[in-house]
Specification:
single chain; 364 residues; alpha/beta; Rossmann fold; OB fold (Dihydrolipoamide Acetyltransferase, E2P); 2 domains; eight-stranded mixed β-sheet; seven-stranded mixed β-sheet; 10 helices; TrmA_MeTrfase; EC 2.1.1.35
């Protein structure tokens, strides 16, 4: 990560350079011209993590440059983070530094915010936390109207709740999500909303067919897309994400989605009738009429079996966080499918990382 100050005036040029680099990687596949979805040039990241560096009775936020990993870089202003985080950082630091019970051996502070203004702060210590710490932390939480979690080795104290509530605005509607501490969420909320809107537009309305979603997380795409299909069959391996997804389905009155806690590889095997699983005992897989599949895999992309499996469906929406593994997978998928749309979503401004969206339909 670079620690040089952000220059919003440079962002359009940097984005163009990144788009050109990513687009060039796919030239051999002759994809359609990419639709570009930029980020806000400042205050775009909803999460931030800082080490705490103590100097006598005072401390400051710090990060470490990989080029000099033992030298703390003092962070007094962090415009990468959401405005909610930036506004809280200094008043929170002062409040914590005023009480030894809150600042002694404080090691790290993690912020998790939302577009809707909710905030969760995790205070991580190199010491055991006690009742006195909890009373003091509760006062700080009340003062700033935030959620606080205290952590130390083998200890987690949740003062009220260990999640934030997001209200994600997509196409004139707000979708509610519990986003848990430690669970995966999209870091750039505004760009995430653009990604969801793009996927909705690609899918259209399908009242007689079903959607299969692999790597569904906390239901980020599942919930907005559920109304586009008769039913949704979704899978996710993370226990935290599955818990959040079930809660999020209930909050958004989504009743036509089934969430399975199992790997995409296992669900693929079950749908191919290669193996049976106890957790599928009450799920009638044969009753699904799946014609669309949405995949949002980790950086490793799709495994060979899943890639071969999804090639059997009429339509594929592929969300990727790694152009290299996306290119590898598209080399195979474009043998059976045609790429109709290609989009680039700049989740991580000022870095080389780029999120991609590809919409494919079965060749005639």
């Amino acid at each position: 990560m670079s620690f040089s100050p952000l220059n919003p005036a440079e962002y359009p040029t940097l984005l163009t350079e990144k788009v050109d680099t990513v687009s060039a990687r796919f030239e051999d596949l002759q994809l359609p011209q990419a639709e570009i979805y930029p980020s806000a040039p400042e205050h775009y990241r909803l999460r931030a993590e800082f080490r705490i560096w103590h100097e006598g009775e005072n401390f400051f936020y710090a990060m470490f440059d990989p080029a000099a990993p033992k030298v703390p870089v003092r962070i007094d202003h962090f415009p990468t983070a959401s405005q909610t985080i930036c506004t809280l950082m200094e008043p929170l630091r002062q409040a914590l530094s005023e009480q030894a019970i809150l600042s002694t051996r404080l090691y790290q502070i993690d912020f998790l915010s939302t577009l809707s203004g909710d905030m969760l702060v995790t205070l991580i210590y190199h010491r055991r936390l006690d009742d006195e710490w909890q009373v003091a932390a509760e006062a700080v939480a009340a003062k700033f109207k935030i959620q606080i979690i205290g952590r130390s080795k083998k200890q987690k104290i949740v003062l009220d709740r260990d999640y934030v509530l997001e209200q994600l605005p997509v196409d004139g509607k707000h979708y509610a999500y519990h986003q848990y501490e430690g669970g995966f969420t999209q870091p750039n909320g505004e760009v995430n909303a653009k990604m969801v809107s793009w996927a909705k537009a690609r899918c259209g309305q399908n009242p007689e067919t079903d959607l299969l979603e692999l790597y569904c997380g906390n239901g980020n795409f599942t919930i907005p897309l559920a109304s586009h299909f008769r039913r949704v069959l979704a899978t996710e391996i993370s226990k935290t994400s599955v818990k959040a997804a079930h809660e999020n389905f209930a909050m958004n009155a989504v009743h036509n989605a089934v969430m399975l806690r199992m790997s995409s590889e296992d669900l693929t095997s079950a749908l191919n009738k290669e193996r049976s699983f106890r957790r599928l005992a009450n799920v009638d897989l044969d009753s699904y009429a799946i014609d669309t599949v949405l995949v949002d895999p980790p950086r490793a992309g799709l495994d060979e079996a899943s890639r071969e499996f999804i090639a059997g469906f009429q339509r594929i929406v592929y969300i990727s966080c790694n152009p290299e593994t996306l290119h590898r997978d598209l080399e195979i998928l474009t043998k059976s499918h045609v790429v109709q749309d290609f989009a680039l979503f700049d989740q991580f401004p000022y870095t080389h990382h780029m999120e991609s969206g590809v919409f494919l339909t079965k060749r005639a």
